[in-house]
Every structure is written in C-alpha cells, then in structure tokens.
Amino acid sequence: VQLQASGGGLVQVGGSLRLSCAASGDIPSINIMGWYRQTPGKQRELVAHITNSGSTHYADSVKGRFTISRDTSKTMLYLQMNSLKPEDTAVYYCAAVQYGSTWWPAKRDGMDNWGKGTQVTVSS
C-alpha cells in the first residue's frame, strides 16, 4: 500500500484546510486509515482514524474541529480541518493498517504504511 498526502499550507488562525491522501496498491487489504501529526521534539500524535466500517475517532484536541473521511472507492482519505489554532501546526501524515495487523491508537510504532508528510502552519 502506498500513500501520498497533500493539501498542507499556511493558514491564519481560525481558517480551514483540507488534507488529502491518495492510496494505491492493495486497497482491499486496508482496514483502518488515519492521520498523525508531529512537531519537532514532540511525540507523534494520532489525530483521527477511520475504520473500514466508517467508524471515526478523534483526539480530544481536535474533536469538533476536524473531520476524517474516506471516499467510496476507499482510495482517498481526507482530513477537513476547521477553526485552526497555532497548536495545530505540524507535519501531518496519513497512514494505514492492513487486515491481519495488530494496531491500537496508542501503539508506539503507529500504523503499517505511511505517506510522506505535509506541512500545516497556522499563523497568528
């Protein structure tokens, strides 16, 4: 499974951005997809994830502001980010877990497959 994220950029406080992640390869093998973010010197944080059944989960820090979704073909993953704050500034990564893998939200190594990150900068 290959993943490629895009859509990052510079936005003012209170603004919105939509991140996209294109998945290719063995799409039917994907069970869970998610977005992580990381800032220098900090541990990578799971922002949101979505299961194959469509169940979504969010970090407390983004609940009510971010929305994760997948298209019906399951080749695209999105993260709609609204009401952005300076603390949302980070490199955002999309990731995927394949069927047969063991994963849980706090898993240190994260998911199985990763895309290159996209920088999101929220300026005040």
What does this structure look like?
This protein has 124 residues and is an all-beta fold. Helices cover 0% and strands 52% of the residues. It has strands at 2-6, 9-12, 17-24, 30-38, 45-51, 56-58, 66-70, 76-81, 90-98, 113-114, 118-123. The strands form two sheets. Strands 2, 4, 5, 6, 9, 10 and 11 form a seven-stranded mixed beta sheet that branches. It has a four-stranded antiparallel beta sheet with strand order 1-3-8-7, with no helix packed on it. Strand 7 and strand 8 form a beta hairpin. It is globular.
In short:
By secondary structure, the chain is mainly beta.
How many helices?
Answer: 0
H and E order:
EEEEEEEEEEE
Number of strands: 11
Instruction: Note the main sheet.
Output: 7 strands, mixed
What is the rounded distance between the termini? 37 Å
Instruction: Give the fraction of residues assigned to helices.
Output: under 10%
Q: Report the principal-axis shape.
A: globular
Computed over alpha carbons, the radius of gyration is 14 Å
Strand percent estimate:
over 45%
Mean pLDDT: 95
Q: Label the structural class.
A: mainly beta
- Uncertain residue ranges: none
